[in-house]
Structure formats: structure tokens, C-alpha cells
Specification:
Catalytic activity: tRNA(Glu) + L-glutamate + ATP = L-glutamyl-tRNA(Glu) + AMP + diphosphate
Main location: cytoplasm
CATH architecture of the domain at 82-179: Alpha-Beta Complex
Function: Catalyzes the attachment of glutamate to tRNA(Glu) in a two-step reaction: glutamate is first activated by ATP to form Glu-AMP and then transferred to the acceptor end of tRNA(Glu).
Oligomer: single chain
Strand order of the largest sheet: 1-2-3
Enzyme class: ligase
Structural class: alpha/beta
Shape: elongated
Keywords: Aminoacyl-tRNA synthetase, ATP-binding, Cytoplasm, Ligase, Nucleotide-binding, Protein biosynthesis
Distance between the termini: 73 Å
Number of helices: 19
Largest sheet: 3 strands, parallel
Length: about 450
């Protein structure tokens, strides 16, 4: 049996780091088990689903390093869902209901007032054919509920019916079907709610493991019952904890909060996003993993806490910075070339400046400084005279990493300056910055001609 998982976003907005957590849990589980990863767009909501969102989701996943083995869309699979509806009707476990939302709410309040659980009482099962025709003559159209198998012979006398599963994340779980309302599978307008298409697709696509957020735990009992009603053995389930903002608020695709696209546009490294999305809220220390394979070694779904994890964007920058500052030139070269940083000195330049960067794109500032000089230099008249005198002591080329030490030692001996009084004016004259990469590394990159021009400006 090939392990097969799926990530099933609705293309109704941009995915955020919370969605990425679910996608990554599934991707890493497949990676560790030599399995398959399916991307399924749950786009049955025709009004809110958009192709541009689906395209963006695929792009975001690819940026994170997730490349599905198969992509499908529920909007292309309605025939399968209709077949399942007919099968459930024929089995007598999908029944029509005609209550309005107002009537359902009134019944719910009555049950609460009687200290009864506010679940649907299956009143629609008592309707005669004549009563159904009368409702339809009024213009009412039925919605269809799945009859949960939580009774012996009389559906109006539900009894405790436990559904058990060993959750990949949370361990042994139990849901009592008698505590639940029969779920609506088909709306009045004939469109499907989430549960039916999802279960039908999981059966058809051979999904072996469903890993998702723990907000779905209570749905699992009914879904397991639906799998069995459709003649299929349920897959294994795992429910990881959710991410919230640092203030405890939930994340939302509609608001774009912490969207993968926005993090990408900020120059955050994809493995920083992946590392934090996977490791936060687990028993593992949150560290920047340089590759997906390295993250897979750290990944253990069972290590997730049962409580939600607060996500602080500042942690992302810390992880991203660590990845950039340790990044080999071979990994950065294509991105640097796209920024115009190329040629024979590109690798030496990258190794010189990477330790001072927050983002790869920040290298362009230092590339400009090395090649064109600083935009402005704030030197006092005294320091200006000092750096001009230092120019006279500049060694001849060729230069290497030791040239800076040789030169500044000569300047120190000639002027008596030392420490900050010696080094700071020279750094300002050469780079326009108070701090930055080691000048011993930058000096050969700038070259003697440009150094002299800056000292004598």
C-alpha cells in the first residue's frame, strides 16, 4: 500500500502560514514514507472560488518546496458526488428535510430550555408523502441529511454509539454519534457541503491518511460513518494543533493575515516559513532547517501540543536571517544573478557580505557600495584630512584579505590613531556605513583605484 495524503484548500483567498502547516505536515509525512501527495482544490463554492487563488496556492506551495504528485478540482468531479447521493438514498440513509433556518433555531432553543442536547430531532423522517408534497407546493426545496448509525431499530431513540480511532497526533480518540445532529450533505439548491465531496474524493483517490487541523476532530466520527455507508474503510486520521497570531486570534485567508505570498514578498526564506510552521507548537526546538529533508528528520506529528500555538512573525525573521547568513554561494547564485550580481567576483562578494544580511535581496545594497561607492559620507573635516593622508600609505596591488591589516597598521604607525578613531573614518569613507562586512574582505573587491578615489574625494 502506497501512503497517500492530500492537502485540500478552498481557493477563496490566499493561504497563510496556518494552512501551510497542514500542507507541510502532509508533505513531510509522505516524504518520510515514500508516499504520494495530492493537491485537491475544494472549489464547490462557485461564488467565492477563483482560479487566480488556485494558481496562487500552487505557486505558494512550490515556493515552499511542495510539488504535488497529482492535482484535481472538485468542480470537475460532480458526477461522482451525484452517484454517491443516489447510493445513499437507495440505502435509506440520506433523507429530505424541509425546515427553514428559523424553524431549526426555534427547535434548538426548545431543546436547550428542556436541558436536552441541541441536536436535530429527525422530525423530517416522520413526514408523509402528502406533507412533503405540501411543502414543495409552498415552494420549499429539501436539504438532505445523512442518517447517522446511532440507533438500534428506532432512529428516534438514539443510543450511545462510540466511534474510535487512533489519531496520528492526539492518540486514541472517541466520538459519540448520539451526541451529534445528522449532518446536512446537500443544500436546498442542490450544492454539496464539505463532507460529502471530501469523503467521496478520499475514497476515489485512495487517500490512506488524512492530516488536518484539530478543528475537524468533532467531524471525524460522522465522516467515518459516511465512509462506511459508502462501502469504504476509513483512512487513518491525524489532527494537529492550530496556529494563532501572537495575540491569540485565528488566521484567515479572507483577511490575508500572514499569507505565504506576503511573507514571500518580504524576502523571508521559504525554509524559515516551513521550519517555523512545522516545529512551532511541538516538543521540538524551533530551528531553521536548511532543506526539506532536514526538516523531515525533525518532523514527528505526535510531538504536537494539544493546545494552539501562537505565531510571532519576528521569529520568522530570526530563522530567515540564520538561513541567509549560512547560505552557500551555489544555493544563492541564481537569485543573485537575477539581482544583477554576477561575474568572477560574485562568489567572493557573497561570502564577504552574507553574514550582514537579513535577506538575499539586501546584497544589492552592498554590491552597489562595492562597485559605485556610498551615496553619502558623513566625515568631519579632521577625519577627511585623516583619510586623505591614509591614501598615501595604500599598498600596491595585488590585494588579498591581509591587505587591510597591513595598510591600517601602517596608518596607525604614521598617525598615532588606533581603535575606533582609526577604523571608523576609513569604513565611512569606503562604505558610507558605520558597520558592515569585514573590510579585509571588501577591500580587494573594491580595488585600489576605487579605494583611492573614495579616500581623496
Amino acid at each position: 500500500m502506497t501512503i497517500t495524503v492530500r492537502f485540500a484548500p478552498s481557493p477563496t483567498g490566499q493561504i497563510h502560514i496556518g494552512n501551510a502547516r497542514t500542507a507541510l505536515f502532509n508533505w513531510l509525512f509522505a516524504l518520510k514514507n515514500d508516499g504520494r501527495f495530492i493537491l485537491r482544490f475544494d472549489d464547490t463554492d462557485r461564488e467565492r472560488s477563483r482560479k487566480e487563488y488556485a494558481d496562487q496556492i500552487e505557486e505558494d506551495l512550490a515556493w515552499l518546496g511542495i510539488r504535488p504528485d497529482y492535482v484535481c478540482r472538485q468542480s470537475d468531479r460532480f458526477d461522482l458526488y451525484e452517484q454517491a447521493v443516489e447510493k445513499l438514498k437507495a440505502a435509506g440513509v440520506l433523507y429530505p428535510c424541509y425546515e427553514t433556518p428559523e424553524e431549526l433555531e426555534r427547535r434548538r432553543k426548545i431543546r436547550l430550555s428542556r436541558r436536552l442536547p441541541p441536536i436535530y430531532g429527525r422530525e423530517a423522517l416522520k413526514l408523509t408523502d402528502e406533507q412533503r408534497r405540501a411543502y414543495e407546493a409552498e415552494g420549499r426545496k429539501p436539504h438532505w441529511r445523512f442518517l447517522l448509525p446511532n440507533f438500534d431499530t428506532d432512529p428516534f431513540e438514539p443510543q450511545r454509539t462510540e466511534v474510535h480511532w487512533n489519531d496520528l497526533v492526539r492518540g486514541p480518540q472517541t466520538v459519540d454519534l448520539a451526541s451529534m445532529s445528522d449532518p446536512i450533505l446537500v443544500r436546498e439548491d442542490g450544492t454539496f457541503l464539505y463532507t460529502l465531496p471530501s469523503v467521496v474524493d478520499d475514497i476515489d483517490l485512495g487517500i490512506t491518511h488524512i492530516i488536518r487541523g484539530d478543528d475537524h476532530v468533532t467531524n471525524t466520527g460522522a465522516q467515518i460513518a459516511l465512509f462506511r455507508a459508502l462501502g469504504a474503510e476509513p483512512p487513518a486520521f491525524g489532527h494537529h494543533n492550530l496556529l494563532t497570531t501572537s495575540t491569540g486570534e485565528g488566521l484567515s485567508k479572507r483577511t490575508g493575515a500572514l499569507s505565504i505570498r506576503s511573507l514571500r514578498e518580504q524576502g523571508i526564506e521559504p525554509m524559515a516559513v516551513a521550519s517555523l510552521a512545522v516545529l512551532i507548537g511541538t516538543s521540538s526546538a524551533v530551528e531553521a532547517c536548511p532543506t526539506m529533508e532536514a526538516l523531515a528528520e525533525r518532523f514527528d506529528p505526535a510531538s504536537s501540543s494539544k493546545s494552539s500555538a501562537k505565531f510571532d512573525p519576528a521569529e520568522l525573521m530570526v530563522l530567515s536571517r540564520a538561513l541567509v547568513q549560512a547560505m552557500p554561494f551555489g544555493e544563492a547564485s541564481d537569485r543573485l544573478a537575477a539581482l544583477g550580481i554576477m561575474g568572477e567576483k560574485a562568489e567572493t562578494f557573497w561570502l564577504a557580505v552574507r553574514g550582514n544580511l537579513d535577506r538575499v535581496a539586501d546584497a544589492t545594497e552592498w554590491w552597489t557600495i562595492v562597485n559605485d561607492g556610498p551615496a553619502a559620507v558623513g566625515l568631519s573635516e579632521e577625519d577627511r584630512a585623516f583619510v586623505r593622508s591614509a591614501a598615501d600609505l595604500l599598498p600596491d596591488e595585488p590585494w588579498d584579505e591581509g591587505t587591510w591589516r597591513t595598510w591600517t597598521s601602517a596608518v596607525k604607525a604614521a598617525t598615532g590613531r588606533k581603535g575606533r578613531e582609526l577604523f571608523h573614518p576609513l569604513r565611512l569613507a569606503l562604505t558610507g556605513r558605520d558597520s558592515g562586512p569585514e573590510l579585509g574582505l571588501l577591500l580587494p573587491l573594491i580595488g585600489r583605484e576605487r579605494v583611492l578615489a573614495r579616500l581623496r574625494a
